[in-house]
Design a protein that fits this description.
The chain contains 2 helices and 10 strands; from the N terminus they run βααβββββββββ. The protein has 132 residues and is mainly beta. The radius of gyration is 14 Å and the shape is globular. It holds the Pfam family Lipocalin.
């Protein structure tokens, strides 16, 4: 597992459909498809630091796996949950504050790419990042 590094979004699969299911309006879904997301990830044991930048915003997220994390998506949607390590895979389960529905996500390195998979109410999507 080597999440450490700077990653830029290369491609997405079914991401707009996921956002639609989550209730994100059409204009924001179209913009999100071209958000130029970059992740700069640092790790020290179970502590992670993620610098996330896109056309929408730039934020820094610091967390320790298994500890409760509050996170806001770019459109303001509030989530609470935690990441855990399962072998070489980071698994996250986050509950929306507004409707209590769960967004599950994983991060793993597959063929040198960082693959982030999302699942929300049976809709699955991926965002694939390459090292910069």
């Amino acid at each position: 597992m080597d999440f450490v590094g700077t990653w830029k979004l290369d491609r997405s699969e079914n991401y707009e459909k996921l956002l639609e299911k989550m209730g994100v309006d059409e204009e924001k879904r179209k913009l999100a498809a071209h958000d130029n997301m970059k992740l700069k990830i640092k790790q020290n044991g179970k502590q992670f630091s993620v610098h996330e930048s896109s056309v929408f915003r730039t934020i820094d997220i610091n967390f320790t796996v298994t500890e409760l994390l509050q996170y806001s998506l770019a459109d303001g949607l509030e989530l609470v949950g935690a990441w855990k390590l399962n072998g070489d895979i980071m698994e996250g389960e986050f509950t929306r504050k507004d409707n209590k529905k769960v967004l599950k996500t994983t991060r793993e390195i597959v063929g040198g790419e960082l693959v982030q998979t999302f699942s929300y109410e049976e809709v699955k999507a991926k965002r694939i990042f390459v090292r910069e």
